[in-house]
Write a structure and sequence with these properties.
about 425 residues; 21 helices; six-stranded mixed β-sheet; alpha/beta
Length: about 425
């Protein structure tokens, strides 16, 4: 079985580690937890590094706990946030928790009878009945305000990073997170907390609380926050987060995100987000150096992640969909696309709307291209390019300027794809 720390080291997945952590993990099967914010009913790729660490942890023989922050998620964490979060009701919280668990099942073994099977816990379950007086007496008295004020996350907020300063609620966040560590140590013998590097202050407060209250030693390990080589924020696109749930980010769009990462990022992401071995990644990097235009690093990265998060079938469909724009023989594939993927493929291309009733009656091709829409500036130009074989409707060449286009040209009963020349694509929507 692989050594957890050694595995993370070569993958570049360790930012900070508390002294004694390595010795603890080599001594015995250890339980560790990682917190996940439940404000949505899907994880996004910003969560993936933490989830991968939990999976490595389990594969190395240890027991992972995924903690849904039902209580802490209601408050907001001052680490890098500028606004407090919205209060979630119990029904929404439970729905989000169950949805996240289903996603985590693709990465972690929750269901076997192995001693290191994963567990999902929610801190709302042990915090909801604790009174303020109990919390102040049992938790608050062990950690000084001086200690809490010294944390970077608190200092940043106090020094003007947030418009409204730092509320008392947020100030107590590190104590609440510390309470989680204490509770899980007492109830599940959890001796290690995992998280992103921005959580170091909160995590060490928990370790300090366990030490002061119980006189016991626990440990901490954080992973670096993932960045892009150009300094941009990882996982964000113009349309928002890249989600793991296909309802929010289609498998095609998910695949495209990884396929389009830079050369500088691709090798790093293969180490962090896949289980390829060091030798396999080195081999791919050498192949990439020989022929960067073939993009072997990005292709393998996109494949590994799309299969892992979605399925082999979704990966194959995404590859096929990716080739539609550039293939001259993709008519059949185009007709088989679901609406979501079709709109994703043609995101950003010019769109025109026509009358469905007119289309059902039949619209002359040249009128469709130059009167009802502005695919061409004039019928004369449209006729010339049609006769020269430069126009395709739904990936099929149209060479007769007198052709009439009817409702049978609609993709999914609503769309017509027009291609002018090699690179100009248009989407016509019948309403």
């Amino acid at each position: 079985m692989k050594d957890f720390i050694e595995e993370l080291k070569w993958r570049g997945m360790i930012h900070t580690m508390m002294p004694g952590t390595e010795e603890q993990l080599r001594k015995e099967m250890t339980t560790a937890y990682l917190g996940i914010d439940p404000t949505a009913d899907s994880l996004h790729i910003g969560h993936l590094c933490g989830v991968m660490i939990l999976r490595h942890f389990q594969r190395c023989g240890h027991k992972p706990l995924a903690l849904i922050g039902g209580a802490t998620g209601m408050i907001g964490d001052p680490s890098g946030k500028s606004q407090e979060r919205n209060l979630l009701d119990d029904k929404t919280l439970r729905h989000n928790q169950e949805a996240i668990k289903q996603q985590l099942k693709k990465f972690l073994d929750f269901d076997s009878d192995a001693p290191n099977r994963a567990e999902l816990v929610n801190n709302y379950d042990w915090m909801k009945d604790v009174t303020f007086l109990e919390f102040a007496r049992e938790i608050g008295k062990h950690i000084t305000v001086n200690y809490m004020m010294a944390k970077d996350s608190v200092q940043k907020r106090l020094n003007g990073e947030a418009r409204d300063g730092l509320s008392f609620t947020e100030f107590t966040y590190q104590l609440l997170q510390g309470f989680d560590f204490l509770h899980l140590f007492e109830e599940k013998n959890c001796k290690l907390q995992l998280g992103g590097s921005d959580q170091w202050g909160n995590i060490t407060t928990g370790a300090e609380l366990v030490r002061r209250k119980l006189g016991k030693e626990v440990f901490a390990l954080t992973c670096p926050l993932i960045t892009k080589a150009d300094g941009g924020k990882f996982g964000k696109t113009e349309s928002g987060n890249i989600w793991l749930d296909p309802r929010y980010t289609s498998p095609y769009k998910f695949y495209q995100f990884w396929l389009n990462v830079s050369d500088a990022d691709a090798e790093k992401y293969l180490k962090i987000f896949t289980f390829l071995t060091k030798e396999e990644i080195e081999e791919l990097a050498a192949e990439h150096a020989q022929n960067p235009g073939a993009r072997p690093l990005q292709k393998r990265l996109a494949k590994e992640l799309t299969v892992m998060v979605h399925s082999e079938k979704d990966y194959e469909a995404a590859v096929e969909a990716s080739q539609i724009l550039f293939s001259n023989s993709a008519a059949e594939a185009l007709h088989q696309l679901d609406e979501r993927t079709l709109l994703d493929i043609f995101e950003g291309v010019p769109r025109f709307t026509i009358s469905r009733a007119e289309l059902e009656a039949g619209i002359p091709l040249l009128d469709l291209l130059a009167v009802k829409t502005a695919v061409f500036p004039s019928k004369g130009e449209a006729r010339k390019m049609v006769q020269g074989g430069g126009v395709s409707i739904d990936k099929e060449k149209v060479t007769d300027p007198a052709a009439v286009i009817g409702a049978d040209a609609l993709l999914g009963g609503k769309y017509i794809h027009v291609q002018r020349g090699k690179k100009n694509h248009f989407l016509i929507i019948a309403e």
